[in-house]
Write a structure and sequence with these properties.
The complex is a heterodimer.
Chain A lengths: L2 E5 L2 E4 L5 E8 L5 E7 L5 E9 L2 E4 L6 E6 L2 E6 L8 E8 L7 E2 L3 E5 L1
Parallel strand pairs in A: 2-11
Antiparallel strand pairs in A: 1-3, 3-8, 4-5, 4-9, 5-6, 7-8, 9-10, 9-11
Chain B lengths: L2 E3 L4 E5 L4 E3 L2 E3 L5 E7 L5 E7 L5 E3 L5 E5 L4 E6 L8 E10 L5 E5 L3 E6 L1
Parallel strand pairs in B: 2-12
Antiparallel strand pairs in B: 1-4, 3-9, 5-6, 5-10, 7-8, 8-9, 10-11, 10-12
The chains are: A mainly beta, B mainly beta.
C-alpha cells in the first residue's frame, strides 16, 4: 500500500531563518506531487507541483521554493522565512491526472 | 479560471439530524469534483469523488453528493450525523491544465459542529 510522510510535524522558526520541509511517498512510482499551504479560513493554496524528478512548477510567487531530488521525495524550502510563511503545510500525491489526491499528515510551521 | 465556493463557513447540527453542505463550482468543462474531510491538525481524507456517470455519488462514512450541472453544484449530504463527523469539510474541483497535470482548486471549507 502507498503511504506519504511529512516531517517535521511541527516547527517553530525565527524570522529570517531557513526552512526545509520534507515529503516522501512510499509504495508507488512516478507520482505527481504537490505542496499546499493552509491558512485559517482560507482553504488550501497550491504552492508547487511536480510531475517528475527535477520538474517543478510554481503556482504563486513567494518566498518559498521546491525541489524534487528523487522520484518520491519533494522538499519545500526557504532561505529566509517571513512571518507570513506561518501556516499548515500539506504534501499530496496523485497516481494519474484527474485522480484523487492523497495527503500527508501536514507540518505546522510557526514563524516568530 | 476554475473556482469553488463553500458559502457556509460554520454549521452546527444536532446528532442524528440530517446534513447538507453546499458547494458551487466554476469550471469550463466537465469537472472532476471531490469532497475531503479534515480533522483538526490532520491531513485531508477523500470522502467521495465525481468524474462522470451517475450524478449521485456514494462515499465513505455514509456520505453522498449529487452533481447538478445546471446549478454548478456538488452538495454533500448525510441522512443522520454522528458526533464523530465533527470536522472541516472541503469541496474541490479539478481538471487538466495545459501542462497535462491535474490542477485542483479547493474551497475555503465548512466547519461542522455536532451537538448532542
Amino acid at each position: 500500500s502507498q503511504t506519504i510522510h511529512q516531517w517535521p510535524a511541527t516547527l517553530v522558526q525565527p524570522v529570517g531563518s531557513p526552512l526545509s520541509l520534507e515529503c516522501t511517498v512510499e509504495g508507488t512510482s512516478n507520482p505527481n506531487l504537490y505542496w499546499y499551504r493552509q491558512a485559517a479560513g482560507r482553504g488550501l493554496q497550491l504552492l508547487f507541483y511536480s510531475v517528475g524528478i527535477g520538474q517543478i512548477s510554481s503556482e504563486v510567487p513567494q518566498n518559498l521554493s521546491a525541489s524534487r531530488p528523487q522520484d518520491r521525495q519533494f522538499i519545500l524550502s526557504s532561505k529566509k522565512l517571513l512571518l507570513s510563511d506561518s501556516g499548515f503545510y500539506l504534501c499530496a500525491w496523485t497516481r494519474l491526472a484527474g485522480d484523487e489526491q492523497f495527503f500527508g499528515p501536514g507540518t505546522r510551521l510557526t514563524v516568530l | 479560471a476554475q473556482s469553488v465556493t463553500q458559502p457556509d463557513i460554520h454549521i452546527t447540527v444536532s446528532e442524528g439530524a440530517s446534513l447538507e453542505l453546499r458547494c458551487n463550482y466554476s469550471y469550463g468543462a466537465t469537472p472532476y469534483l471531490f469532497w475531503y474531510v479534515q480533522s483538526p491538525g490532520q491531513g485531508l481524507q477523500l470522502l467521495l469523488k465525481y468524474f462522470s456517470g451517475d450524478t449521485l455519488v456514494q462515499g465513505i462514512k455514509g456520505f453522498e453528493a449529487e452533481f447538478k450541472r445546471s446549478q454548478s453544484s456538488f452538495n454533500l449530504r448525510k441522512p443522520s450525523v454522528h458526533w464523530s463527523d465533527a470536522a472541516e469539510y472541503f469541496c474541490a474541483v479539478g481538471g487538466l491544465n495545459s501542462g497535462g497535470y491535474q490542477k485542483v482548486t479547493f474551497g475555503t471549507g465548512t466547519k461542522l459542529q455536532v451537538i448532542p
